[in-house]
Amino acid sequence: MQQFCEQLLNGLNLGSVYALIALGYTMVYGIAKMLNFAHGDIIMVGGYTIYVFMNMTGHPLIAVAVAVVFCVLLGITIEKVAYKPLRGASPLAVLITAIGVSYLLQSLAQIVFGSAPKMVKIADMGVLKIGSLKIQNYTLLTLACSIVVMIALTLFVKFTKIGRAMLATSEDKAATQLMGINVNNVITVTFAIGSALAALAGLFYLLKAPSISNTFGSMPGIKAFTAAVIGGIGSIPGAMLGGILLGIVECISYKIPAIAAYTDAIEFLILIVILLVKPTGILGKRRSEKV
User: Fold this and answer.
1) Residue 111: partners with Cβ closer than 8 Å, 6 or more residues away
2) pLDDT tier, 44 (very low <50, low <70, confident <90, very high otherwise)
3) What is the mean pLDDT of residues 257-266?
4) Cα 217 from Cα 50, distance rounded (Å)
5) What are phi and psi of 134, to 5 degrees?
6) CATH architecture entry for 2-120+127-277
7) Could you read off the pLDDT of 140-194 as tens digits, one per residue?
8) Exposed, middle or buried by CB within 10 Å (0-12, 13-18, 19+), for 125?
9) Torsion of CA 176, 178, 180, 186, to 10 degrees
10) Domain locations in the chain?
11) How far, in Å, CA of 174 to CA of 139, rounded?
12) Which of 119-128, 197-206, 211-220, 256-265 has the lowest mean pLDDT?
């Protein structure tokens, strides 16, 4: 029972990281209607930024703050340079561009830092003991931060001017422009928020596995995209739900010897099953297309 509880907590921790990444995917898709496959590599950039500034300053808060700011600026730059010129282009052209940006970031990281993994020691946060149960404090921090971020994003979208503009843009971009809202600015803000979340996800992933390479964000990015689709891409609570579900399944599967080697296959099988049963995802809503 104790081992099950520990794996459940590990799953919630990993799922919270996936949820933070998935929130970036789901916001960009919900508003800009594009899949930003370079999102996982922004996590990698955030991780390397933390690595550099930890070595320079030795202060985790400074390193994390710089990583968030740098990732926000990077996300805005990518949107302006790579994606904005493709407004109105075919989805395939945008998808290929996103994949190209992903490989560009990975290659630049390899040129700058090399291909060997770098160890990133952020902080020893200790362990909380409840009876015989041991809980890593970074697990509690990750869970709390993910919940706060989801609540804050939900309130931001519902009750702020720019948040309501995001909702309007996601529903009908052309009508939103006719109302005098600058859609380009809305999309830029969306990329900025998603990139900030990617930097935070990089921090929490490093707390769990303190090693980084140029492919650091690739698999977490793919898993988080899967989580966003499972939960209902475009839905903020859906991204959180999908991330938590995927994290729990992954951690429990790894501890069952008979299926440990097939953990990734099981996760993607869950995606297929859910899409067959409910194509819009668990909390996704079907939208009627206007013609």
Assistant:
1) none
2) very high
3) 86
4) 14
5) -110, 125
6) Orthogonal Bundle (1.10)
7) 888 888 888 888 988 998 889 998 998 888 888 888 888 888 888 999 999 999 9
8) middle
9) 30
10) 2-120+127-277
11) 43
12) 119-128
Q: DSSP strand E in the chain: where? A: 118-119, 127-130, 133-136, 211-212
Token couple for 182: 């600058």
User: Model confidence at 41, in pLDDT bands (50, 70, 90)?
Assistant: very high
Residues 6 or more apart whose Cβ sits within 8 Å of residue 35: 25, 28, 29, 94, 95, 98, 225
Say yes or no to pLDDT of 291 above 50: no
Q: 166-174: long-range contacts at Cβ-Cβ below 8 A with a sequence spacing of 24 or more? A: 166/27, 166/31, 166/190, 169/31, 170/30, 170/31, 170/234, 172/290
C-alpha Rg value of the chain to the nearest Å: 19
Among residues 226, 291, 244, 178, which one has the least CA distance to residue 19? Answer: 244
Strand 133-136 relative to strand 211-212, pairing: unpaired
Question: Does the structure show a pLDDT above 80 at 127?
Answer: no
pLDDT of 95 above 70: yes
Residue 83 tokens, joined: 């994606």
How many whole angstroms separate alpha carbon 94 and alpha carbon 135? 43
How many whole angstroms separate alpha carbon 126 and alpha carbon 175? 52
Residue indicated by tokens 């999309």: 187
